[in-house]
Amino acid sequence: MAIEQLLLVPGHATFSDKVKAIGQVDINDENNWVLLPYQRGEVPCYLEHIEWGLEELRIRNNAVLTFAGGVSRTESHWSEADSYKVCAQIICNEFGWDFEELKPRINLETRSTDSIQNLLQSILGFKDLYGTLPKMVTVGGWGFKKERFEEIARIIKWPLGKFAYVEVNCPQNIKEVVELEQESLKRLILSPTGAQPLLMGGRVWSGPIQSKLQINYAG
What we know:
Helix 1 packs across helix 2, helix 4 (115-130) crosses helix 5 and helix 5 (146-155) runs parallel beside helix 6. The protein is α/β, with parallel strands linked by helices. It is built from 6 helices and 9 strands.
């Protein structure tokens, strides 16, 4: 069956450097992650994002699942995407799912450092691998980031009819993060191409994307 759909799970954190191998990590233990203070208590939510992606991959035979996120912390060599893939294998083992069967349809985007890059580079990576753009892109993650990703889809000129965002869950401190997200979204709208410094998820995004916007998404 031809691969036509892209499932995307953006990363939010990485393993710590003390994690050496899959058999030696308790993915539920926060001590195995590099977390910022506001991320404490969020690991179960990240695992639910991964579980959502795996569940969708199991029922969509024409889809691939991309975990996106680069090396975001100086304290660790792990990328967010690599960390999530290890979690995916452990989750599959816990649920009795065949990870080896799913593995050929799991891709990693390890260069991205913000939401724009997560979406754009995952789409471009799909085209590089399969020779065509996906007919549908579905992102699963924080509920409060739905508006952000819809705005990013507009910025990179991705057809909204070929885009969906699934609100998997939200963190406990939802009121605080929504306020921060609204400020981030305002900056995104004011500086969509990176011409000005842009705050994205706690990181400054400054990579111009004008040249990448020349891609023809009509196909």
